[in-house]
Design brief:
There is one protein chain. Helix content is about 45%, strand content about 20%. It is of the alpha/beta class. The chain contains 6 helices and 9 strands, in the order ααβββαβββαβαβαβ. β1 and β2 form a beta hairpin. Strands 2-1-7-8-9 form a 5-stranded mixed β-sheet, sandwiched between helices. The chain has a two-stranded antiparallel ribbon with strand order 3-6. The structure holds zinc ion (2 copies). One zinc ion binds next to α5.
Length: about 170
């Protein structure tokens, strides 16, 4: 898909579908599990050290938190908040992203995440999506829609669900 109008329409359709999927999961009243974990992801994001975007991620199975992550520098290296961003082609590349850090934290602690869900405050970038897919995570709940066409196309092929939780 290369025509910008097709891409635009595809992304709008995907966002609408993901929103609808999220709405179907939860009714009104007491905060449901999906919002509960998404709220926690927002708290995790508050630890981010790159103010270009604060992102938090929580990996969950059977209503249990297995791991969390936020975007920050390589361990032991200075933070964007202290030394400024490391910009390459319009993106800050200093940080390890939240979803990657959540997967890494599970690896460091020997926690199995295959078949789990991930809650992330923004829909994953392509690099993180590849990690999520190969980690065996089957559902991605996201807050803010980050317009990465390839993620939404490939998720469909792989049968990975992308669901918006506001
Ligand atoms: Zn930065
Ligand atoms: Zn990412």
């Amino acid at each position: 898909m290369t025509d910008p109008q097709d891409v635009q329409k595809f992304l709008e359709d995907e966002n609408r579908r993901a929103e609808e999927a999220g709405r179907k999961l939860e009714g009104k009243g007491r905060v449901g599990w999906h919002h509960y974990f998404m709220n926690i992801a927002h708290v995790v994001a508050s630890r981010s050290t790159c103010d270009r975007k604060h992102v938090g991620a929580v990996i969950v199975r059977d209503k249990n938190i297995l791991s969390t992550g936020y975007n920050g520098s390589i361990r032991g290296l200075p933070h964007c908040d202290d030394v400024g961003h490391d910009m390459v082609a319009g993106h800050c590349v200093r940080t390890v992203h939240a979803e990657a850090n959540a997967i890494i934290q599970a690896a460091r602690h020997g926690v199995r995440i295959e078949g789990a869900d991930i809650y992330t405050t923004a829909s994953p970038c392509w690099e993180c999506f590849k990690l999520i897919a190969n980690a065996g995570i089957r559902r991605v709940f996201y807050g803010e829609f980050y317009r990465e066409q390839k993620v939404f196309e490939v998720a469909q092929q792989l049968g990975i669900e992308l669901i918006k939780i506001e």
